[in-house]
Amino acid sequence: MAIFNLGSINIDLVYNVPHFPTPGETLHSEGFTKGLGGKGANMSIAIAKAGGNVRHIGAVGTDGLWARDLLSTAGVDVGFVDEIDVATGHAVINVDASGENTIVLFAGANVELSKDQISRALKTGKPGDWLLLQNETSLGAYSVKLARELGMKIAYAAAPFEAAAAMELIDLVDLIAVNEIEANQLSEALAVPVEEINVDKLLVTRGSKGIWYQDNGQISEQTVFEVTPIDTTGAGDTYLGYFLAGIDDGLDVNFALRRAAAASSIQITRPGAAIAIPEISEVLTFLDENT
Are 139 and 169 contacting, i.e. CB atoms less than 8 angstroms apart? Predict the structure, then answer.
């Protein structure tokens, strides 16, 4: 099947810092890189590298045409990534000595998508295909409702967390993916415990505590692999992309969870976000070495 990803495309500006700056502090960075990022782009590349059929729906400005080219080179179908007269979204990312990060986003072209563009894309799909979305683009609710009418399944990464967006979509999606903080925010917004959130599939990434997954009441847990992190930017995106590609391909859920954990473990040992996402061959080798 196909996975249509209504997703952000960002230019990542990454600064390596000895610590996160405090209010009023001017801090010298120890390094700088510029690359492709955005939760949407990261997930599309992860899906493609996991062997999935992914079609990205998004937009860039003339300053981001190279980002669209990188998506295509990674195996992502970019036929529905439009060039518009708005600056490409970007993210300013600080990465500290332990590999943790803080991020400031500029939405840019990501929030200038049109209904016509989304309709053209989704109407090329088939019943049973997936629509994946995050909270970094415009027209999420419109896209979900249209995808539902077309018989598609919906995967929603509720990040960056927005209570209003989550409340609008909660009854329309098949899978919600959140980190532990976002899970607690969603739980608070709905006034129910996390395990009682009313969605068929709930994926919670919990950092070093591993992954918790509930599918129609059936709970699975996956531990993480012990690695030394360099940069955790994009780890959750890598995990969801690999996991969704796995279940779309009919993999056993527990193996899909483990394979995704291996992919994100490799990813955080490398600098950058999209550029750090491993190929499926690397992931399978890693799993063989860590059985």
Answer: no
Q: How many CA atoms lie within 13 A of 1 on its CB side?
A: 19
Are the CB atoms for 54 and 5 separated by under 8 Å?
yes
Please determine, for residue 31, whether its predicted confidence score (pLDDT) is greater than 90. yes
Nearest residue to 253 (alpha-carbon basis) of 291, 288, 218: 218
Length of the chain: 291
Catalytic residues: 237
Which residues, in sequence order, are CB contacts of 122 under 8 Å at separation 6+? 4, 57, 131, 143, 146, 147, 150, 152
Q: Which of 109, 111, 200 is nearest to 160 (CA)?
A: 111
Which structural domains are found in the chain, ordered by start?
2-9+39-78+111-289 (3.40.1190.20)
pTM higher than 0.85, yes or no? Answer: yes
Segments in the chain forming alpha helices (H): 39-49, 65-73, 115-122, 140-149, 163-169, 180-190, 235-248, 253-267, 280-289
pLDDT tens-digit readout, 201-216: 999 999 889 999 999 9
Q: Read off the pLDDT of residues 99-113 as tens digits, 9 standing for 90 and up.
A: 888 888 899 999 999
